[in-house]
Write a structure and sequence with these properties.
There is one protein chain. The protein is an all-alpha fold and about 180 residues long. The chain has a single domain, classed as Orthogonal Bundle (Globin-like), CATH 1.10.490. It contains 7 helices and no strands. Helix 2 packs across helix 3 and helix 6 runs antiparallel to helix 7. The radius of gyration is 19 Å and the shape is globular. The two termini are about 20 Å apart.
Length: about 180
């Protein structure tokens, strides 16, 4: 059995990409095929679909509440006495990744996640603790999203897949 998650079909809402195209509408609501009529923008990002920045702020707040009580994760933070700046950075990064404003990159440049995490010893134990905290927080905040049940499940599954792959990507030491 492979450790690589199986690829899933795209969900209708994806990070910073458009949902499947719908017929363009004119201002009067009729379908159009010409470039001279005004079209309605049909793009929706996960950022927008889950409720914008408040969703990511809540997700990250729940995550850092868990970090503050975790004997494996808390020592990884140089400023363990003040997790606020780390929380702010993570919330902005996740919002940007899932199609929100580019504030993270404007303030900090390219994410370079692996490079930024090299100074920290991240093995399977740290990976698993990080992932458990993030997935618990995700479970906590997803019910509050303005999505129907089917789409909520699909978005949650896609986010969980992203977090799983990201956590594995940052591992820099064996067992």
């Amino acid at each position: 059995m492979s450790d690589t998650p199986e690829r899933r079909a795209p969900i209708p809402v994806t990070p910073a990409r458009q949902v499947p195209e719908m017929p363009a509408q004119t201002e009067t609501g009729t379908e159009t095929g010409t470039d001279t009529e005004t079209e309605t923008d049909q793009s929706v990002t996960v950022f927008m679909a889950v409720g914008g920045q408040p969703f990511f702020d809540d997700l990250v707040a729940g995550f850092y509440r868990r970090v503050a009580d975790d004997p494996v994760l808390l020592p990884l933070y140089p400023d363990a006495h003040d997790l606020g700046p780390a929380a702010d950075r993570l919330a902005k990064f996740l919002a940007q990744y899932w199609g929100g404003p580019t504030t993270y990159s404007e303030e900090r440049g390219h994410p370079r996640l692996r490079m930024r995490h090299v100074p920290f010893t991240i093995g399977p134990t740290e990976r698993d603790a990080w992932l458990a905290a993030m997935l618990s927080s995700l479970d906590e905040v997803m019910p509050g999203t303005p999505l129907d049940d089917e789409l909520r499940d699909a978005v949650q599954e896609r986010m969980a897949e992203y977090f799983t792959l990201s956590a594995q990507h940052l591992v820099n030491v064996d067992g």
